[in-house]
DNA sequence: TTGAAAGCGCTAACAT
DNA sequence: ATGTTAGCGCTTTCAA
């Protein structure tokens, strides 16, 4: 009975509103945009009809016309685990605050995907891009392309060294300071033979954490013992393996600082298995403040990476870079991590921070 | 010296290419799109210049013209923790496979944000929307608006009951089957007094899991003991508290099934604290297969929610709903969860699945 | 206070 | 095989 339009699923447009109201589309457009020059009466009529017809403005058209999409692009290696979801969350929240939508892509740690995603974001006319590059990325030419289009770029966490200052911003964690803080803490707890489980040094994060470890020892006049540092890919199993090996030594360490929480957890499991007490016999500390660190027994001392703050900060920097007349080469931002002291390292009473 | 364009940051357009090549924009457009009708020679010239000038097609314009944005919208309560990032990951991967971009919004469990985000997605002209609604959402009128615009909608995990079959798809986990499987497993391990830590029953997930618990008992002729079920908001602390209370009882349970891994972990901590052995004295099982469940001691038996698969499946269903002539009212999809037996419940030798 | 008209960059008839 | 043209829905001069 009801006469259905044959092409019913076309959305209501400004033109439709204008026609039914008997006014020009420019007036309708202005009314909807809340321009002061339009009479209240007209605004009322327009808004009411828009409501009735479930009018939804077409952002695509508006963006095309305006030349701005109001969208930021995000490119991360993946959105699983603890760190990236948390950072992306910070990004989403802050972007929304600044009036931007967010388009998220993941490279799956693959350079080719990364290139594709980058093009995708450029084609989507994003006004700025936030990137943490894949760990297989060695050639960064594809980021130059972004630069050439004058799309502001902010790297976070994994930054491209040597690209700073070239229309590019960056936000990283001060890994050095984080490691320095944990190791200093361990020393304060009376530890003198502190082992270090480090990831491979060609990754700058690991290099910085290792340097923090070394400098903290030196500054506190604790001798650096080469054999106490083990390099390997840090995870639960390898952490356990390394710990077992370390326990073969003639002289045992009195603490282990792992550059990653999983490796620390693996080490703790071995220590307990062997009947060694944590922290009394050997103190343990990790890095990242993963969710599970409050679940281990004892709870794990670690360094918080301020993920949410990193996302926020990155967006703030990016948004400042967007206006045409803005500073395109902002200073790199380095966030101070937070030492989180828990039971795996607390030997003295009331050492809570 | 170098003469810089005053308005240098305008991106290269098809028109620019056409002008420099001395051909019409339609030829260029066709060449770039790889139409068969264009000569190879022309294609070559066009592609080369496009490369040289770093031409990037403007998706906004293409989408506007075509009337399709090639974008799917995703609306989740948040992208932190374990579950949602993992599902979103599945969504992103599958969407990309199907040639769609993804726009992700989070409601932060807030209905108002949810409404706003929904409008945002509609305005962005997404071709379909995947939603897991905020847990404060009771009125679902804002989803009707999506429906009215003929934008296909797929709910996942948190579904709107009663909206099914109305141009709406859904993908959920079979919580009932998951709970039924764990409890059956516990019974097979010889447990007869199985306690249940359940979340509030007004949430359907909890209701289903509880029912699975009850039915598994009944079907295996194990008596249902009312006092063994505790209702509370499940987390680490409350799990510990509930466990302590339970240990006051005259007759102890011989197993605990918590509808959430954190509560199970809390319970395990208390058990160990009291010198009770897991699983020999009291077996423990959780639900969700959180990352940390392989880190607890003993490792925690749990139910995997197939997060990635849920994301994939949801996208597949959504994509099928997009064509004009498609079935707009697909059958709800119910995913079978996977029981993961670990040491916290393994009493018999070789019970690995 | 309102309207007419141009055009953002692209695609797709419809020519030729 | 290539060109001409109209128009997607919107914003924004310019004119009235």
From TrEMBL, chains A, B:
Example GO molecular function: DNA-binding transcription factor activity
Name by which UniProt lists this protein: LacI family transcriptional regulator
Pfam families linked: LacI, Peripla_BP_3
Membrane-crossing segments per the record: none
Species whose genome carries this gene: Hymenobacter busanensis
InterPro entries in the record: HTH_LacI, LacI/GalR-like_sensor, Lambda_DNA-bd_dom_sf, Peripla_BP_I
